Each structure stands twice: as C-alpha cells, then as structure tokens.
Amino acid sequence: MDQPIHVAVGVLIDDKNCVLLARRVKGAHLEGFWEFPGGKVEADESVEAALGRELQEELDIIIGETSPLLQVHHDYGEKQVLLDVHRVETWSGEPHGAEGQPLAWVGVGSLDNFQVPDANADIMTRVKTLLSAA
User: Fold this and answer.
1) Burial 3-21 (b: 16+ CB within 10 A, else e)
2) Is the pLDDT of residue 1 over 70?
3) Which residue of 30, 92, 108, 125 could cross-link 131, Cys pair, CB 3.0 to 4.6 Å?
4) Could you read off the pLDDT of 42-71 as tens digits, one per residue?
5) Among 13, 89, 6, which residue's Cα sits nearest to residue 42?
6) CA 116 to chain centre
7) What is the DSSP string of 84-99?
8) How far is Cα 32 from Cα 23, in angstroms, rounded to an integer?
9) Domains and CATH numbers, the chain
C-alpha cells in the first residue's frame, strides 16, 4: 500500500467564534467541497513549517502560535491521507482566497450546511465542540 499523503490542516477561529472554511477549486480532487485550509507536508518539512507555508500561499497570512488538535487517517480508495490538524491561535494579515478559492467564516449553527470531504468529518465534530464551548 502507498504511503498516505501527509497534510497539514489549520483551524482558524475568529473573534466572532466563526471558523474559516475554503472551497476546493475546479479541477481539484473533490472540487466544490468545503474544507479547512492547508496542504501537503513536503519531505524533510515539519508539520508546523508546512502549515505556515501553505496558509501563507492559500490565505496570505503569517501564522503565529498553533496547537495540535487531532490527527485523521482516511482512505478514499484511490488515495489515503493523514491529516495533521492544528488550531491556529494567532495570525497576522486578513485571510483571503489568495489562489482564487472562495472562503467563508462559519458559525457553529451553519457548519452542517457545508459539504466537506469525508476525511474532514472528525475535524468538523471537534470544531463544533470548540465553538459550542466558547
């Protein structure tokens, strides 16, 4: 079996207790689905470095403090992924879709209205708990 694709994922929660979701662009695997931003961890790169690089590329922000939230292993059949999910506690800059992808700040009551890839289901459950506790 092939090695899973290792992905660094960021959960950003704003001061209004909303979480940032990004929509997968046309031509991408699972295009049109919403997801937590992030991307592949390159060889010899730490998860934190990958997360910083990916969020700068995707959202045009510089991350500050982060904390591990959970890891998700998922098998899509044609590919396996390992999502290393971190809560991004602080960042500088205003997140925007730097690669043309739509973004949405979503409150806990609206999260179920967004279709996410199966691998993101556990992240959604954890984020709902975080938002509900705040």
Assistant:
1) eeebbbbbbbbeeeebbbb
2) no
3) 108
4) 999 999 999 999 999 999 999 999 999 999
5) 6
6) 11
7) EEEEE--EES----TT
8) 6
9) 5-133 (3.90.79.10)
**Is residue 118 a contact partner of residue 112, using CB atoms and an 8 Å limit?**
no
The pTM (predicted TM-score) of the whole model is 0.93
Length of the chain, in residues: 134
Q: What angle do CA 56, 36, 91 make, to 5 degrees?
A: 40
Using pLDDT thresholds of 50, 70 and 90, give the confidence band for residue 2.
confident
Q: Around 48, how many Cα atoms within 13 Å sit in the side-chain half-sphere?
A: 7
Answer whether 13's CB lies under 8 Å from 19's CB.
Answer: yes
Q: Are 103 and 22 in contact (CB under 8 A)?
A: yes
Determine if residue 119 is left, alpha or beta; phi over 0 gives left, psi from -120 to 50 gives alpha, anything else beta.
alpha
